[in-house]
Structure formats: structure tokens, C-alpha cells
Amino acid sequence: MKEETVSLTSDEEQRYQKAGFGQQLGFGEKPALLVIDLMNAFTDPEAPFGSNMDAEVQATAEVIHLARQKEIPVIFTAMGYEEGCESEMGIWLKKAPTLALLKAGSRLVEIDERVKPMTGEPVIIKQGPSAFFGTHLSSLLIRLGVDTLIITGCTTSGCVRATAVDALQYSFRAIVPRECVADRAKGPHEANLFDINQKYGDVVPVQRVIDYLNNLPPQE
Is residue 16 part of a domain? Predict the structure, then answer.
């Protein structure tokens, strides 16, 4: 698969090189797989937030299957709020009023059947872009001894990016398999993958993640 790239002028490339950006974090020894917001609200093209994410959902499903085989933790997130508690979404509702549709128990907030969680796999409900903000994700990862967070899901320019930034701030190695993250438009998608790879985590082909998982020793 040909990778799209962000086009830089020679002067811009030199600035990034001078800044020392783009170093690779690499994989650690104790990974977890995070599946961000692959809800019907985003994966159904007919939904107000939705777009065609079929390829990314399929690629993520394959990584989930392998992670389960290797007994690696798989953690899901979804966005939503309880009926009558719109205030949980805060000022974000003013910026994006359609978020009011994301009511707990509705079809929109259900995880896409193609990547449905298994019993025992946590689904963390969040009211902000980052999977870490206002949730117990960091403490869960610490309890599990995780050092590497493989981030999949949507959207690249929103919740994926916000989570990658926070993962770095919590000192987790953020790994983003390119084929497993999606957005509504190519421009924001590519720009944010570029920026994540330069400053916050490693954006890699999904095959590199598959090879890493296949070569992992049994997890304790």
C-alpha cells in the first residue's frame, strides 16, 4: 500500500530536521491495543458523523483478532452521555451541537459489530477527544504493566491525535498503524498522521504491528 505524505518545501524539511523531530519510539515489551470510537455514529456513512471506514474497520478487526490470540489486552472507547446529562459533554456541545445525538443506549454509540468487544474487554465511555481525559485508562494501563499503546480507530484528526498526545505525556509508546485509523477527509487525516509521527508517536504500516505481535513472547 502506497503511503500518502504531507508535502513540505525544502526549507520546511530543514526546520523539522533542525528541531530533531521524527525520532522513532519503537515498540516496548508489554503492549495493549486501543480501539477508539469505532461506533456506528462514525462507521455508518448514513449517520450524521459517519463516513466510509470499511477498510480501516477491517484492518483493525484483523489486529484485534491477532491481539486476542496473543492474549494482549484489547480496550475500546466510545463517546456518549446518559439521558438528561448533556452537560457531561461540556462546551464541546457548543462547538459541535450534533454530539447531543450520542446518548447512551442508542445505536449510534454502539461499537460496530465488525469489531464488537468480547466479554471481559473494557469499553471506556468518554466525553472528550482523548481516551485519557476524565477516564481511568491511564490507571488501567499502569495496572496491566503496559508500556506500548497501539492506537486504532477514529478520527485521526480528533480522538486519535488527542489520545496519542496524552499517551506520550503519560510515557506510553504510542504506535499508530496507518491502515487502522480513519477520518472524514484526506487532508486532515494525512496532516495529523504526519504530526503524530513527527512529535508524539510512531505511525507505521499495519504489517509492522502484525510482525511485532507475532514475534512477542507469551505475555505473563
Answer: no
Catalytic residues: 159
Residue whose cell numbers read 498526545: 165
Which residue range is the domain that position 166 belongs to? 26-215
pLDDT tens for each residue of 149-199 = 999 999 999 999 999 999 999 999 999 999 999 999 999 999 999 999 999
Judged by DSSP in three states, 73 sits in coil
The tally of domains found in the chain comes to: 1
For 6-31, what is each residue's pLDDT tens digit? 888 888 889 898 888 999 999 999 99
The contacts of residue 171 (CB under 8 Å, 6+ apart) are none
Look at residue 66 in the predicted model and tell me its pLDDT. 98
Cα pseudo-dihedral 207, 31, 111, 101, rounded to 10: -110
For residue 163, the domain's CATH number is: 3.40.50.850
In a domain, 12, yes or no: no
